[in-house]
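haha ok so turns out i had the wrong file open the whole time. this is the CORRECT one, sorry everyone. sequence first:
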Amino acid sequence: MTNSAKELLDAEVILITGTNTTENHPVIGNMIKHAVRYNGAKLIVIDPRKIELTKFATYWLRQKSGTDVAWMNGMMNVIINENLYDKEFVESRTENFDSFKEVILKYTPERVEEISGIPKEDLINAARMFAKARKGMLFYSMGITQHITGVDNVKSCANLQMLTGHMGIESGGVNPLRGQSNVQGACDMGCLPNVYPAYQAVTNEDIAKKFETAWGGELSRKVGLTITTMMEEAHKGNLKALYVFSENPMMSDPNLNHVREALSKLDLLVVQDMFMTDTAEIAHVILPGVSFAEKNGTFTNTGRRVQRVRKAIEPVAGKEDWQIFIELANKFGYEWSYSSASDIFEEIRKVTPSYAGMNYARFEKEGGLPWPCPSEDHPGTQVLHKGKFTRGLGLFHALEWLPPAELPDDEYPLILITGRILYHYHTGTLSRRSKVLDTIAPEGYVEISPFDAQTMHLLEGEKVKVSSRRGKIDIKVKITDMVDEGRVFIPFHFREAAANLLTNDASDPIARIPEYKVCAVKLEKVID
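then structure:
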């Protein structure tokens, strides 16, 4: 996030898209509701499902799945044509505006209504409200990123916030809500194929040498593989071994039949986790994972705030994660001698400029600190891009809308959206072992609109077979107006009806994130 969650409480207008916030990020969801109910904030929701926050919204724009670039271009078309954009910000802090404007002017509200299904008057009114706000925050999550145009969707969010001058100010910014606990910290620490910690490029010779010195070994200058490309290479026989740490790709990856085939071709699959996951069941070697309550260290939250985690109990398996990694590294011939989590953090400070000013003593005294925090007398940075972007001028991207990889047809007439629900987390590795949570939400379901249910002669709780070009599952029907005609929704937490047997592994060409949010399916009644 460019800004902090607490700034919600002072925002004039909040725009959320691609995030079922009250179920997936309930603390921030409650803050949004508080801002609207008690602080006078206006809320714009753009989502194909009737999520809870639509009840609090001044405008709810129900777009067709996979049309995000189109509706954002449409909002910006209104803002430019009505002269509502921040000219001073655009002229002094951005570049490529003319090329960007040339594309935007093609996306009239009438054309966007044809593409997205959003009534032009609603689009115009929402655009006016957002542009006129002095403080406008934009939030998104995986409903924006999990498309073949995920990178373009995110760039469009940045375009909108630069155009309105909502960047580099309090209660503004582009604010992605991260999908898992400490995923921000994992990315900060280089758990990405193209960067070292602090997003330092692996292709940069000076950066690579710095880390070779710190870690005592030779490092490749080549960009690595993403999760989806790992599966592709394993399926081809080019990737021979895989180490899976606290992840469950046999539930979380798209097109699970393909994933199983890919993993079965590995010479070695190592899984390190707390429980026997679907992926661990097919592993050659299983190592013990450790919960947050069994380790010392830091987590970095979605707002870039680095916070201490303190061990409450000794590790059940006898070792913390970092100790297992060090033993493995030393068996490979290295000589790593860290004695504690704080030792490791001291190294992090030396090689990670954005963390350089942090240390355990400061955490004890001050609590969490948001990066970048370059020196020990620096308070941390709550708002990014004040006065200047990291690259200098903010770059407007001229983006055309592209349709999803797979659209409905006569054989598969419905669009499937996947996602999460309040009571379970990710692949259910933890939450489905909670008796309380699994009692509240014990099984999967497929949401279907009342119109489609009537057309197909389906009843509440009736079992149907949901099929795509990649797989099929049996699952119970839930009739609801949360989805509209032609769309269905399935939560992906339930191994008994794994939604990702259906999903499309077509992916964004840059980030390689799969298109979980759009795939064509059909429903058939199951006759017992």
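Residues 414-525 form a domain with the Barwin-like endoglucanases fold (CATH 2.40.40.20).
again sry for the mixup
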